[in-house]
């Protein structure tokens, strides 16, 4: 505005607009108006850092943060956690044979059992996680290798996936559903938990597979194309990802709410982790009545065993899988 | 926003002309100051990443669903960043006009508004491929542990800077700091006291008048009433 109405005769461009409008007659004053805005006299708060304000502020910050810190420390120390590494790297490990002889295109699953004992009983809901270390789900090219339109049930994206999914975009001349490297590397180890009671009988512990993914993911972000019924028909003309054993519409045929793209294990895997050593929720063990512990401890029962039915990772990636059981802490 | 910042009022600037010396000597913006600013920026970036990094390695939501995912990490760091920057600007502002308030609080509000808008169901429905962060802000910022991380990061980033500027103003006050303190104490003492003092001062400064049996024209002249009329007369005839 100033540049367009610049007049060479005006020394300071204050009222150049006004002067031009005034014409040859009255010469308007070049002084800026005597308003509070232009004279920088607006009412204002002028804080000064004095000792009287800053030192109490520091003390207050300390007084607030120290109890929070102590509280969090005490709470987190009370969380019971048990981690089992089933990599099978060492020859004495239970899963050594599985790890050694298994490859990604083996047809028979490999099963191995890892016995363990809990030091203390676990109360309340127990969460079962699977963890991987040195698995870089946060690699940039890996993170981009997905098609969110396709996962949202868009039919055109189902038939023509995004270019970001290369090289996991088409296979055998058909588009892959779900496409991309993230989906292709789906974690598909099956973990079952049993406990052995005093007379030696194995009882399977019921594991809940619903409620492990975020609500927004399951109900908004991931949708099956054409609804949850007749998935075999909906996915016709697509092929399964290269490293998968079964196609996406057979993830959980017994439950239409957990089949296809809205399968919760798949959703949990697709939410890429931030760090190379991460854990993802696998199953929840619901608490029994308030008096009995959810996972009893060794004094009352024999060691529990963990049986793995294994579609294990190929050895080149060298992730070290482990599972961890954590009881929920602050909802008792 | 910088236009409205003012450390010393215009009257006091005229009273203490040596306040203009730091500007002439480039004391406030030179290579050393720039380097220190850059260093502060580097340190803050370091803290802004590594404090949430440490927290996210083991973070879990209250109902147990895992939380250490990349999108929640990003939202946490971005929120901490905006809060740290806004508060730092606020601490450096010496003259809070309405405009400053609007811009500083407004930018915080705008950040959250845009964050939730970009991660809402609606915009994801229109452009699924371009807005993959759907639902992250809602899930992430509703967890208390994330807010604790944000507050911790903000405090750790800001408190050292605050301590340094406070100590510098107390132990090595510049002329600007002294004049600001003076200005504030004058304002606190009130306008009535100042008028009294001014009256006493001018009466001692005035040269002697011989006419002591009546009030005389002293008050008329020192109040400046006839001076002002003179000024408007001059203005009208320019």
Explain what this protein looks like in three dimensions:
The complex is a heterodimer of chains A (332) and B (238). Chain A has one domain (83-330). By secondary structure, chain A is α+β, with helices and mostly antiparallel strands. Chain A has helices spanning 16-22, 51-77, 96-101, 140-144, 148-151, 155-159, 181-184, 215-221, 231-234, 264-270, and strands at 82-85, 110-116, 126-132, 170-171, 174-175, 190-196, 202-204, 278-285, 304-310, 322-327. The termini of chain A are far apart. Chain B has 238 residues and is mainly alpha-helical. Chain B folds into two domains: 2-172, no CATH class; 192-237. The two termini of chain B are 36 Å apart. Chain B: Pfam families: PhoLip_ATPase_C. Chain B: One of its GO terms (cellular component) is trans-Golgi network.
Global Rg of chain A: 32 Å
Topology pattern of chain A, helix = H, strand = E? HHEHEEHHHEEHEEHHHEEE
Strand content of chain A: 15-25%
Specify the structural class of chain B: mainly alpha
N- and C-termini, Cα separation of chain A? 67 Å
Inertia-based shape of chain B: elongated
How many β strands of chain B by DSSP?
A: 0
Number of β-strand runs of chain A: 10
Gyration radius over CA of chain B: 28 Å
Greatest chain-chain contact: A-B, 56 and 50 residues
Mean of pLDDT of chain A: 76
Keywords:
heterodimer, A: 332 residues, alpha+beta, 4-stranded antiparallel sheet, 23% helix, extended, disordered N terminus, disordered C terminus, B: 238 residues, mainly alpha, 2 domains, 0% strand, Phospholipid-transporting ATPase ID (chain B), membrane (chain B), magnesium (chain B), transmembrane (chain B)
């Amino acid at each position: 505005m100033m540049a367009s109405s610049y007049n060479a005769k005006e020394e300071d461009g204050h009222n150049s607009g006004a002067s031009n409008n005034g014409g040859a007659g009255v010469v308007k004053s070049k002084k800026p108006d005597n308003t509070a805005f232009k004279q920088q006299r607006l009412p204002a708060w002028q804080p000064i850092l004095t000792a009287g304000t800053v030192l109490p502020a520091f003390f207050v910050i300390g007084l607030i943060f120290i109890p929070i810190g102590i509280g969090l420390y005490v709470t987190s120390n009370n969380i019971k956690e048990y981690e089992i590494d089933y990599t099978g790297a060492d020859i004495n490990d239970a899963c050594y044979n599985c790890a050694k002889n298994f490859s990604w295109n083996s047809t028979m699953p490999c099963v191995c059992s890892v016995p363990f004992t809990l030091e203390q009983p676990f109360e309340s809901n127990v969460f079962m996680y699977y963890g991987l270390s040195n698995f870089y789900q946060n690699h940039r090219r890996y993170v981009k290798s997905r098609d969110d339109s396709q996962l949202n049930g868009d039919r055109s994206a189902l038939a023509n996936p995004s270019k970001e999914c290369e090289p996991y975009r088409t296979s055998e001349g058909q588009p892959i559903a779900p496409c991309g490297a993230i989906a292709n590397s789906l974690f598909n180890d099956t973990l079952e938990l049993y406990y052995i009671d005093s007379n030696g009988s194995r009882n399977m512990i019921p594991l809940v597979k619903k409620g492990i993914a975020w609500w927004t993911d399951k109900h908004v972000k991931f949708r099956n194309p054409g609804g949850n019924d007749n998935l075999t028909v909906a996915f016709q003309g697509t092929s399964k990802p290269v490293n998968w054993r079964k196609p996406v519409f057979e993830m959980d045929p017994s439950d239409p709410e957990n089949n296809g793209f809205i399968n919760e294990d798949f959703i949990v895997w697709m939410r890429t982790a931030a760090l190379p050593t991460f854990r993802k929720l696998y199953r929840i063990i619901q608490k029994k009545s308030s008096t009995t512990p959810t996972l009893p401890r060794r004094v009352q029962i024999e060691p529990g065993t963990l049986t793995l039915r294994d579609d294990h990772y190929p050895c080149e990636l060298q992730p070290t899988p482990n599972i961890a059981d954590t009881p929920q802490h602050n909802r008792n | 926003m910088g236009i409205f910042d003012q450390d010393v009022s215009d009257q006091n600037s005229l009273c203490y002309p040596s306040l203009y010396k730091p500007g002439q000597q480039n004391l406030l913006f030179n290579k050393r100051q720039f380097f220190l600013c850059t260093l502060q920026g580097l340190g803050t970036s370091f803290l802004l990443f590594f404090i949430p990094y440490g927290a996210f390695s083991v973070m879990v939501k209250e109902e147990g669903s895992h939380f250490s995912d990349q999108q929640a990490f990003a939202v946490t760091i971005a929120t901490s960043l905006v809060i740290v920057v806004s508060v730092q600007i606020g601490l450096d502002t010496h003259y809070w006009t309405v405009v400053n308030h609007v811009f500083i609080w407004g930018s915080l509000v705008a950040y959250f508004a845009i964050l939730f808008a970009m991660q809402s169901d609606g915009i994801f429905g229109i452009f699924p491929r371009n807005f993959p962060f759907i639902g992250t802000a809602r899930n992430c910022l509703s967890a208390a542990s994330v807010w604790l991380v944000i507050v911790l990061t903000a405090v750790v980033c800001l408190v050292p800077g605050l301590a340094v500027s406070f100590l510098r103003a107390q132990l090595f006050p510049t002329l600007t700091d002294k004049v600001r303190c003076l200005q504030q104490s004058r304002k606190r003492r009130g306008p009535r006291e100042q008028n009294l003092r001014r009256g006493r001062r001018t009466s001692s400064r005035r040269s002697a008048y011989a006419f002591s049996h009546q009030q005389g024209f002293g008050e008329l002249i020192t109040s400046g009433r006839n001076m002002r009329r003179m000024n408007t007369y001059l203005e009208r005839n320019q």
